[in-house]
């Protein structure tokens, strides 16, 4: 009976080791990019572009502006690389910048009339949703479900379950205790499972009178 549990633990350990190795490489590229190494800059941007775009999309930013926010994040980061000293992973540092970019964008948008001449939120969210998350059917608009979560729970879930940050680093990005992140993720997961179960429940068929 312990075999599946031990096997799962080994797989988790391997994944954590793989993530740590990837983060170490990305951090090394960021440090090298501080001196203007163009190859390091390119590797740094390529390695984290998907994570940043996914994060700003699911954090609550308008999906129509996700590309602009992603670009803004990297512009801010590249302009601040001289202050990055590697005390945290480059990914954690960059996602903190992305978070500020989203907040600034929301504040700016809230003070101006909102115009939209493109697709609605649901269509954009369905295009942006990840297709490889275990436990979620491709036909379910995960982005739409996440959007229904409270902001803090959505952010914690996205950082740890979609972007793949360790809980401690997610806490650093969100500026809250690790225990709070764990609690938010657990509550978000419970809500998502309940909504998925409800969505998959067959609709009662009523007979005509």
Give me a quick take on this structure.
Residues 44-109 form the RNA polymerase sigma-70 region domain. With 209 residues, this protein is mainly α.
Description of the structure:
The protein is mainly alpha-helical and 209 residues long. It has 9 helices and no strands. It is globular and about 60 Å long. The termini are far apart. The model is unreliable at 4-9 and 113-140 (pLDDT under 50). Residues 1-24 are annotated as: Disordered. Belongs to the sigma-70 factor family. ECF subfamily. Residues 9-22 have a biased composition (Basic and acidic residues).
Largest sheet: none
How many individual domains?
1
State mean pLDDT (0 to 100 scale).
75
Q: Could you give me the name of the CATH homologous superfamily?
A: RNA polymerase sigma factor, region 2, helix turn helix motif
Distance between the termini: 54 Å
Q: Helix proportion of residues, in percent?
A: 55-70%
């Amino acid at each position: 009976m312990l075999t599946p549990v031990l096997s799962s633990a080994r797989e988790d350990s391997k994944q954590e080791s793989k993530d740590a190795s990837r983060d170490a490489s990305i951090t090394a590229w960021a440090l090298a990019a501080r001196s203007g190494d163009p190859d390091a800059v390119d590797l740094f941007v390529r390695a984290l572009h998907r994570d940043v775009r996914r994060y700003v999309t699911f954090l609550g930013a308008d999906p129509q502006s996700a590309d602009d926010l992603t670009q803004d994040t990297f512009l801010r980061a590249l302009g601040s690389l001289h202050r990055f000293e590697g005390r945290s992973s480059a990914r954690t540092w960059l996602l903190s910048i992305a978070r500020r970019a989203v907040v600034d964008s929301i504040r700016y948008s809230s003070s101006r009339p909102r115009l939209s001449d493109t697709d609605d939120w649901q269509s954009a969210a369905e295009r942006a949703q990840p297709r490889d998350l275990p436990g979620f059917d491709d036909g379910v608009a995960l982005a739409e479900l996440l959007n229904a979560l409270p902001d803090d729970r959505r952010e914690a879930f996205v950082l740890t379950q979609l972007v793949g940050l360790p809980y401690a680093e997610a806490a650093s990005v969100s500026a809250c205790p690790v225990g709070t992140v764990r609690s938010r993720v657990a509550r978000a997961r419970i809500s998502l499972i309940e909504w998925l179960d409800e969505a998959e429940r067959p609709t009662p068929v009523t007979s005509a009178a």
